[in-house]
Design a protein that fits this description.
heterodimer; A: alpha/beta; nine-stranded mixed β-sheet; two-stranded antiparallel ribbon; about 35% helix; B: alpha+beta; eight-stranded antiparallel β-sheet; five-stranded antiparallel β-sheet; Rossmann-like_a/b/a_fold (chain A); electron transport (chain A); Electron transfer flavoprotein subunit beta (chain A)
């Protein structure tokens, strides 16, 4: 019922006359909470954004075989934020999670090289992986957050292949935790986080109490490159392997992809010599 | 950029001895007569900081004919209306004479050399080029063949009023043999577009350079462009299997073979590779294209002593061997310039030297294993102080961007004096150190970067604007330094007009004499790209 034992309340029940004792115990509790962020970061393996995407001849999806993959850029930003929290001594442990085939382990290794302490690989392969949706991922993330006793989940705002922008929000809902999405700045203040969000109209500042879910937007930070000493260290860090069933998540597809097509080929433009010609051509094509 | 002050003009004129009138009865073309050693004045060395030259900016660059007053216009005819009519007959509507259309073609990329060409011709076929040259030869009209106009020594623009023959419209790919990897295309094909056309077939050009978005294969061939892949794939002398060129008299020389091996007589196509358009206009080429590597990885390494750099290079060659495809060098100053002027991020902290090592292979796992064992070895032996590795295309591109954009970043400093020289590898960085000492605080920056694998260093000195003192300290001292260690005064960039005075620094008298004789044989009237390569 109480995920973290509330020393402050307990002490005040015992000796309400001992004011200083209560204050001391409360601040100790707050200190205990402050340096104790256990951060869960989701990292997704996606096709590298510099690669030219090709649609499969049968229009069932995009070609992924033999295509270079890398960590989703927003997941990199999420990972970087977690590492910065650890450097500021606000987080004590970072766990990197990825759901996917065996190659997802490479993405977790990259996260470990950036500064995560350990990794969790939820193995999902073949058709199950192709049909995996944010809802499946959020259920896994939510269960993991509870099992690992994480009090902060940082995800990228969306993945560059799905562009769904749903996982963060769904994870928060399943956990019944507050969420601060499209974060462009995160600061810890006492027992809550102050997050500046990028919204259509500009910037919005919100306060979220912990535990919480944050999704990272582009301007949150600039992710670091993993340097050689860290890459070497990462080789020794552990990656635990699980299956979706271990978390009680059923991966039956809820969506069916009917078709994937290339965008229409851009038609060549026409140059005209005068406004009259322009109007004439517009009339001819029935636009005007 | 201010107009040249009069005291500088006087100073410059005083430096030159009077130019002897050439004797036209000599067997060699008149303009080869050995006159004074009138070196090009200092303005020519200054590369002005302008990213794209609009017509207005182009007009601010002084005309080469004014800047090099000792250069006399050769005994060529001038373009008349009659000539224009003939051109219009030969290439239909593709004759440009409007100043607005021509200005961009009269100035080179670096904004140093500006010609006064009045006519721009845009042929589409080899036959048109042949007809143009036959006519020009008959009329004794000088001509400059021009590709992407990205050269750095003023070799692609007119000096006086030469006719500009732009190859840009000759951009057809003629054929591609996927099995042998031989591509046959016209000379005006832009390298980036060639790569785009080759990519679906899993092939790529054997050379790649920073100007790939604009440079054309004909120009690359004419200048024997090196580039970033030369360590692995070799230079164009080896990769170009055939060349079709039009000689000065309009004859089409068809050496357009697609054969890997053909030892039947003299290999004439080699004459056109690197001769900067002075022996013939390249109109088509067949190029041997290697396969796009299945796996490319890049490691950026930081070292704090040059001894470490050489050890790292040695270890890379030993442990990577056949997958090593590039070893590029940058010093701290060049990393700082891309960080300050272009706001690029360097993943490593400040180190004195940086090495960019690229591997290309067919099997990612195999390459990664080799690269990881190399990196482990480097860290263990302390040959490297820090480093980072990338295998994803996006990260590979960002690491390469640090090296590829140094030249662009330097322009933002204002005036850049560029030197591209080959020196012995043990003395690779010494030139930069000596230059820094010599130039002192007068210059904004002295940077050295380049192709460590080929021992080719690009020394660049920047100032806010042209500085006579700095220039005088640099030239001919840099070239003398290079000549002393028997290096090349122009590793990749060619001679053009800006380096022609230093031809003898890296070539003996008899060698240059034979070059001139060849030129006289192939272009007796000297109409092809005159005033370039050879000093007066």
């Amino acid at each position: 019922m109480w995920p973290i034992f509330d020393y402050g309340r307990f002490v005040s029940i015992i000796s309400s006359s001992d004011v200083y004792g209560v204050v001391w115990m409360r601040s100790l509790a707050q200190l205990h909470k402050m340096a104790n962020l256990r951060v869960l970061v989701g990292v997704k393996r996606v096709i590298d954004y510099a690669v030219k995407i090709r649609v499969k001849p049968d229009n069932s999806g995009v070609v992924t075989d033999g295509v270079k993959h890398s960590m989703n850029p927003f997941c990199e930003i999420a990972m970087e934020e977690a590492v910065r929290l650890k450097e500021k001594k606000l987080a004590k442990e970072i766990i990197a999670v990825s759901c996917g085939p065996a190659q997802a382990q490479e993405t977790i290794r990259t996260a470990l090289a950036m500064g995560a302490d350990r990794g969790i690989h939820v193995e999902v392969t073949g058709k199950e992986y192709e049909n995996m949706t944010p809802l499946h991922v959020s259920k896994i993330m939510a269960k993991l957050a509870q099992d690992q006793e994480a009090n902060l989940v940082i995800l990228g705002k969306q993945s560059i292949d799905g562009d769904n922008n749903q996982t963060g929000q769904m994870t928060a809902a399943l956990l019944d935790w507050p969420q601060a999405t499209f974060a462009s700045e995160v600061t810890k203040e006492n027992d809550h986080l102050k997050v500046v969000r990028e919204i259509d109209g500009g910037l919005e500042t919100v306060k979220v109490t912990l535990p919480a879910v944050i999704t990272a937007d582009l301007r949150l930070n600039e992710p670091r490159y993993a340097t050689l000493p860290n890459i070497m260290k990462a080789k020794k860090k552990k990656i635990a392997k699980h299956k979706a069933a271990d978390f009680g998540v059923d991966l039956t597809p809820t969506l069916e992809v009917v078709g994937v097509e290339d965008p229409p080929v851009r038609q060549a433009g026409q140059k005209v010599e005068s406004t009259e010609e322009l109007v004439a051509k517009l009339k001819d094509s029935g636009v005007v | 950029m201010a107009m040249r002050p009069s005291h500088v003009i006087r100073y410059v004129l005083e430096q030159y001895k009077s130019y002897r009138v050439p004797n036209v009865t000599q067997s060699l073309p008149s303009w080869y007569t050995k006159g004074t050693n009138g070196s090009l004045d200092s303005w020519s060395r200054c590369v002005h900081g302008s990213v794209a030259l609009t017509q207005k900016k182009a007009e601010r660059v002084p005309l080469s004919s004014e800047r090099f007053p000792q250069l006399k216009r050769g005994e060529f005819a001038r373009v008349t209306d009659g000539d224009l009519q003939v051109f219009e007959r030969l290439v239909a509507s593709r004759v440009l004479t409007e100043p607005g259309d021509i200005e961009g073609h009269n100035v080179d990329w670096s904004g140093t050399c500006r010609g006064a060409g009045q006519v721009l011709l845009r042929p589409k076929t080899t036959e048109e080029v042949s007809a143009i040259l036959r006519y020009c030869n008959g009329r004794r009209l000088a001509a400059v063949p021009q590709g992407g106009n990205t050269g750095l020594v003023g070799g692609s623009v007119p000096v006086f009023d030469e006719v500009i023959i732009s190859m840009s419209l000759m951009d057809k790919i003629i054929s591609l043999d996927e099995i042998s990897g031989v591509l046959v295309c016209q000379a005006g094909c832009v390298v980036d577009k060639i790569n785009g056309a080759l990519e679906p077939h899993g092939l790529m050009t054997p050379h790649i350079l920073g100007s790939k978005g604009s440079c054309q294969i004909g120009g690359n061939i004419s200048t024997n462009a090196g580039g970033l892949r030369m360590l692995r794939y070799g230079n164009l002398h080896g990769n170009v299997l055939g060349v079709e060129a039009v000689l000065a008299n309009g004859d089409v020389l068809d050496c357009l073979s697609t054969l890997r091996k053909d030892n039947t007589g003299y290999d004439l196509k080699q004459l056109f590779i690197g001769s900067e358009g002075s022996l013939g206009v390249v109109t088509a080429a067949s190029v041997l294209c290697p396969r796009i590597p299945g796996a490319i990885s890049v490691a950026l390494l930081g070292c704090d002593s040059f001894a470490q750099v050489l050890q790292t290079y040695d270890a890379a060659k030993k442990m990577l061997q056949e997958i090593l495809s590039a070893v590029e060098f940058m010093d701290r100053a060049s990393m700082e310039v891309v960080q300050e002027n272009l706001q690029l991020t360097c993943p490593l902290g400040a180190h004195r030297y940086y090495l960019l090592v690229e591997t290309s292979g067919s099997n990612a796992a195999h390459d990664e294993e080799k690269l990881n064992s190399l990196l482990g070895h480097l860290m263990e032996k302390g040959m490297v102080d820090d480093g980072t590795v990338a295998t994803e295309p996006s990260k590979v591109q960002s690491l390469w961007a640090l090296r590829e954009n140094v030249a662009v970043a330097l322009r933002a400093d204002g005036c850049v004096y560029k030197y591209d020289v080959t020196v012995p590898m043990s003395r690779f960085y010494d030139l930069v150190v000596d230059t820094r000492e010599r130039v002192g605080t007068d210059a904004t920056r002295v940077v050295g970067y380049g192709h460590l694998g080929e021992s080719d260093i690009h020394l660049n000195v920047t100032c806010p604007k042209h500085n006579e003192d700095v220039f005088d300290a640099l030239e001919p001292w840099v070239y003398d330094w290079v000549a002393k260690c028997k290096g090349s005064v122009s590793a990749e960039h060619g001679m053009g007009i800006l380096k022609r005075d230093y031809l003898y620094h890296s070539n003996t008298g008899p060698v240059v004499l034979l070059m001139k004789q060849l030129k006289g044989l192939m272009d007796p009237k000297g109409i092809l790209n005159p005033y370039k390569i050879f000093p007066d």
